What does this fold into?
Amino acid sequence: MNTLLLLHPTIVTEPHAVEAAKDSLAQKLGTDKSNISQHIIDRVATGQVSLQPSHYNHIQYLAPPEANAKKLPVKCYEIIFEALQSNGVFEGTIPPESATDGILQGFLVESDTRWVKPSTLGSVVSLKRPVGQNKTKSSAFKREMPFFKKLSSPPTLTDSSEADEDEESQLNEKLKGSKLIYFDESSDDEIIDEDELLRDDDGALKGPVVVPVKCALPNGKRRKKACKDCTCGLKELEENEQNERLDAQASILSKLATSANAEAERIEERLKRKQASKEGEEVKFTEQEVTEIDFTIQGKTGGCGSCALGDAFRCDGCPYLGLPPFKPGQAISIEGLGADI
Amino acid sequence: MGHPSITILYGSETGNSQEFAQVLGRKCLYLSLNTVVSSLDNFDLKRLLDVKLLVVICSTTGQGDIPRNGKKFWKFMLKKGLPNDLLSHLSFTTFGLGDSSYAKFNYAIRKIHKRLIQLGAHEFSDRAESDEQSPEGNEGYYAEWERLLLEKIKKLSHHEIDPNTLLPPMNGIVAQTNKFKKITSNVKEVALTRFELLTGVIEVNERITSADHFQDVRRLVIKDTSNSLEYKPGDTIALYPSNDPKDVESLIEDQDWQDIADFPLIIDGPTPTIEGGLVKKLTLRSLLTHHLDIMSIPRRSFFMIAHHFSTDEREREKLYEFSLIDNIDALYDYANRPRRSILETILEFHSLRVPVQYVFDLIPTIKPRLFSISSTPSPSTVELTVAIVEYRTIIKRLRKGVCTRWVKELEENDRIKFSVHPNNVKFPPGPLIMVAPGTGIAPVKSIIEQRLELGMQDMYLFTGNRFHDKDFLYGDLWESLASKNQLRLFPSFSRDEKKSYVQDTLYAQSDLIFDLIYNKNATFYLCGSSGKMPIQVRITIETILEDHLGISNEESTKFCLELENKGRYIQETW
It folds into this structure.
């Protein structure tokens, strides 16, 4: 019994997986492990290894799960078909959605993972070959197929002029295996001079470079940030603004300090007025009283309703800027500001 | 059919590239792409063979170099033996973060881009080289670049996910409350359990500016008890600061995490890369103390996630607004300008309740801070010159740098973790002109001390400080060396009676500078803060060349570039 194990290039890095596959294959076919020959599929596909025609009873394909999502080039199925004896079986991790390719090749597709080379070709319905291939002959299309046409040279990765998209990506997938060697950490390669990279620009960096919309942010506004070592005066402007805010804070904090006293006076005042007013008459506060900083009045949240929420919500020029948020009706505690004031 | 996939790799020194990578990654997830976001070095390079769409976002560091977390990737890419079709299956675009005050502006991303093309990859969307010095900032470039890129990606997308959908966390964490509580009260001890790093002992932590000067600059000497330090002038030391336990406690209280904060923590799924490794016996508290940068300014990616966690309609809307690039101005005013921290933001949005499994996604990790070494090579000690960052903004509470707050509190004999980072600065023989305003003096001090040990004396030092008597860093040393003719000293003081800046003093020494550079093969070494200073110094040098040679500005610019390519104009700014 002639058995062939075709390996995806990346599986080679996992010898235990290959051995396990061989063991189970030998067991399943009732043959000895030593009867199973193996090749890496890309070497077969590129013609570096040629397979004896009509030789194998069984060809098994093994690819890691992450690699079999992509189709194999049609060429591979052609070679496998030729290498199988009549009634020979191709099995394994055949990429999904490859059935059409298999049928086109002449396989009897029994399932997604089991294809059989039929014994009597005449009984197989011939499907039209893709344009460009010999299609003049009869249903015995086996003869129409190029018989072990060896490639003059392995295809290079960049030569994709003839390959369709699937084949191209498949080619990449296969060549990936051969590229793994460059990632070998033990190799102590020579290093190119990185300064040379920029010395002679051969155009790699000549392409378009993204520039921001001139002097504007996405919202069309100019950035308000002063440069380090600013000389245009923006920095002074910013400093002035900062000082103003610090002054405003100082005034608020000093008001807070006297507020206990003021509060007591205000309550007294209110009581007096209430006594003076007739029952049921509305007690009106003066404008000044309302705007007075008084965090203890329930529901008071500042003039615009946002002061209490914190800097993120405060208006430009809000006297509370730089101070922590406070809950309506709650006094700002100076301790809450930390020890560094 | 599976979803299309995209791989976004970043090379980041301070976290800006990482931020953009995460913002882009999140957008791709909402376009139902299989999205991988990783640092260049944390990505298994073999997987490049499976990548169809690649985005590289990378900043430039040092002398046009790839950032720390991209060194391994870059070493691979530079292998001479790689075939020119290695990446021919791959479509890519790049985004560079740069600062045009550096001569080697965006060199890292240019090199990466060029190499990817050499290896057969195809550019599928226009690349960008952003400039932090531009009025639009890096964000302005990013916005336009992302717009073009997403237009192309949208065509691949099977469907877009509603932005109100909360995606599962990328690096979820689970507190194991069924286990025994852990005691993590000794913050300094816990910090020492990061075994990947060197352990040092603080030998000196002294203020070297006068007490009445506004800025506190420290001379920090770290002793390596194993006597195995290896460094050269120009190299840097990374320090690994921890947050203030009080700040951590206020976050834990605000978020009602007290009941789980001290139980063992497991990371569910991939562990994010943390330079220097995680502390042992991880708990939520130790994670927040040693690894998550709660004092950093919240970025757009923070708000992209945070808005899901607010129950108040108004707050949720506001958080969402801050996540939009069109509102970058509002976010700038709210967060960047006043230097508001993530902690303060979380405390301010009172309805914001962060599910604990999202903290890794929400809060960036604390990046180690790099400081230039200011001592001559020694196997046992290393000295740093650290400016303590403290300032006020409109926010009442004093702003403090995470690392410098931590440095300020270090006491003698405290043990800390650190690492040495070689910078590969090569100083050719011959005269050395050094321009070092402010803490730019640190690496310069190291090279001067080494040259003195080697008996090399052809050194010209241009210092820049505010006052001779307040912040003239190591002024006594320079003056003493100058008096012994071991060094020529040209100090500039910007706030003393005779005001001058380094570039003024350089121009005043025009004949000397010209002679040294043009006739004596001198090397020019410029260190200090980035921004206008290095540009103005360069213009000064160009002007000196023009004056003496009668050449055009174009020619003098070319001359300076050639000096730079020969390694005779070295700029180290931060």
User: Anything to note?
Assistant: Chain B touches chain A through 79 residues (CB under 8 Å). The radius of gyration of chain B is 25 Å. The longest helix of chain B spans residues 137-156.
